Amino acid sequence: MTVKLNIGYVATAIAPYYSKEYKVRERSETDLKKILGNFDVNFIPFHKTIFSKEDSIEVEKFFKNKIDFLLLQTSSCSSGEQLYPLCNITDKMGIWAVPDIETEGDVKLHSLVSTSHYLAMIKKVLADKKITTKWFYNYADTDEFINKFSITIRALVALKKIKHAKIGLVGGIAPGFDNMEVDQSIIKKNIGLTVEESTIKELVKIAKGFDQKTIDSEVLKIKSAASSISVSNDDSFNKVTRIYFALKKMKEDNNWDSLAVQCWSQMQELYGVAPCMAYSWMGSEDGIAVSCEGDVQGSMSMLLLNYISNAEKSSTLLDLATFDKEADAVQMWHCGVSPRHFANEDGIKWVDHTTLGRKTEKKYGVAGDQVFAPQETTTTYISNNAQIKVLMELEDGLEISI
């Protein structure tokens, strides 16, 4: 399903100020089109400045049931009565102020005061509408505006896609990880996402059905991507590559957007492998988010970050391993599921799983071993059936709460 964000733009003003003379709306609309040309969204501007409540009612009718987000620019000082009809359109609004062009003499726009006025009205007088707001400042050709607005659009696109997304849960959660249990009905209510279930038994059945030539060809690619290989049983590559193709088939057949797959203990009992390499390869080669241990909320978090970044390769799931107080740092680690594009110059190594079978003679392949390259990252996790707010700090220092 193709999901597009619909963005509306409207400018308010009152006659004693100079929004019309300075063509604030026209200039802003032109610059917004340039910004949004970098996104796969629908931009719907209202092509005249709003000077009265009657104009606002016209805008309400124009936008009703058409947009997901309304960017309301107080292109000059505006009146409170203009706001009420505009707050009947959507529950997500950006309130936007622009600076006066002249810094001496009479105030010609006085835009910021009305942005403050409108935000206060939405919070106090219109609290029952539960409108989520974000405020913006400066003209749309400035970095100050472009950076904050672009991040907001990325987040809104991600939220709309998540609302229509489906996650495939294969095998349920790993033994003992009861904190990962989710209430699918609450998740559906909170963010619209659907969870569908299948079994490890079905996954293994599909895995066994692929032509050996297809498997052998992919194994060559997988092995050639590694800087070194130290896997005890070479047949593990055959089996885990079959898991890779089976997961891809299940995703495609069911129109899943990401997966949460139990990696132990059923996978070892039924097929004798550690499937980490399959999850890693799906992330690097296909851009598909796969969380291990049946972690649905981890898969949701990965999918959200994939949507926000719009990258071709997937995010990953890590454990918080330890604190290093002296370095003012934390160490994150997982068993070998991270895609290879995170690796430093040493690349990824294919190895036996580091903990499954440890202290015994039994070894399970295949997992990935790598050290991440220094890079800017965003870390997040959606928990509590997607009921909590998630704070994401992005590379340019701006933050998004959803």
What is the highest CATH level, the class of the largest domain?
Alpha Beta
Q: Encode the helix/strand succession as letters.
A: EHEHEHEHEHEHEHHEHEHHEHEEEEEE
Shape: elongated
| Proportion of beta-strand residues | 15-25%
Q: Overall mean pLDDT score? A: 95
As laid out across the biggest beta sheet, the strand order is 2-1-3-4-5
Q: Tally the structural domains.
A: 2
Unreliable stretches, pLDDT < 50, 5 or more residues?
A: 394-402
Oligomeric form of this entry?
Answer: single chain
Q: How is the CATH topology of the largest domain named?
A: L-fucose Isomerase, Chain A, domain 2
Gap from first CA to last CA: 23 Å
- How would a crystallographer describe the biggest sheet? 5 strands, parallel
Within CATH, the superfamily of the largest domain carries the name L-fucose Isomerase, Chain A, domain 2
The radius of gyration computed from the alpha-carbon positions, rounded to a whole number of angstroms, is 26 Å
**Category from helices, strands and their pairing:** alpha/beta
Q: Helical percent range?
A: 25-40%
In DSSP terms (H or I, runs of 4 or more residues), the helix count works out at 12
Number of strands: 16
